[in-house]
Amino acid sequence: MPGKNKLQRFAEMKHFNNTVEPRLDEIKGSEGEEKFKPHPMKGRWKKDFFQNQNPLVLELGCGKGEYSVGLGRKYPDKNFLGLDIKGARMFVGAKEAMDEDLTNVGFLRTRIDFIDLFFEPNEVDEIWITFPDPQLRKNRIRKRLTGKLFTDRYKKFLKPGGIIHLKTDNTTLYEYTLEQIEEHGFGLLFETANLYEEGIVGMDKDVREILGIKTHYETLFSAKGFKIKYIKFTL
């Protein structure tokens, strides 16, 4: 049964050494303190988790971790950390990384709303946002991962000049993100509304390979004829 399979995955993942699943008491302040407090791993991902000082790259809403694992294979000299709240999906990427002994790939199970509790200033070098929920309902617009609510959080830990990548099939989110970049004076480095038929043309082999990594959702949307959008920018 699917439910049983999910419980089995949760149980197995608790023993993975490449996955962090914080308990609520690790980030929730006690009575009389602030509502939330920094997680003990904040500022220590490179030294204690990855045990090196290589650049740290986040994949937000990582799902099955296709980008974290794919980039980890290609760049052994960088650390990749996938974040998601869906543990059953994350299990797939975490197990794949374990099976391939990708020691530069890890996973953090948490809500992205809490992201600034896990990283200190200048700790993160780069961010990938891969096919996030576009939050199309009017009362959910502020929850878009490229909106001010979240970019203000990213500024707390992303290094100056650190790059943010967005891949999406959703035209509304794509156009909204371009508007946010212009409104807040962010640095637009590249954008295309049709990545594979236009945007990727002329790019070097490494960039084509990176942008050619497909998540589960990208595969589904592409099969339905949706054009894939891509934006690369700095805060």
Brief digest:
By secondary structure, this protein is of the alpha/beta class.
Task: Please characterize this protein's 3D structure.
The chain has an eight-stranded mixed β-sheet, sandwiched between helices. The protein has a single domain, classed as 3-Layer(aba) Sandwich (Rossmann fold), CATH 3.40.50. By secondary structure, it is an alpha/beta fold.
H and E string: HEHEHEHEEHEHEHHHE
Q: In the CATH hierarchy, what is the architecture at level 2?
A: 3-Layer(aba) Sandwich
Count of folded domains:
1
The first-level CATH class is given as Alpha Beta
Low-pLDDT sequence parts: none
Q: Proportion of β residues?
A: 15-25%
Question: Major beta sheet, specifics?
Answer: 8 strands, mixed
Task: Spell out the blueprint of helices and strands.
Layout lengths: L1 H12 L5 E2 L24 H6 L5 E5 L5 H9 L4 E6 L2 H13 L5 E5 L14 E7 L17 H7 L3 E11 L2 H13 L3 E6 L2 H5 L5 H7 L4 H8 L5 E6 L1
Parallel strand pairs: 1-4, 2-3, 2-5, 3-4, 5-6
Antiparallel strand pairs: 6-8, 7-8
Helix pairs in contact: 1-4
Supply database-style keywords.
235 residues; Rossmann fold; 8-stranded mixed β-sheet; 9 helices
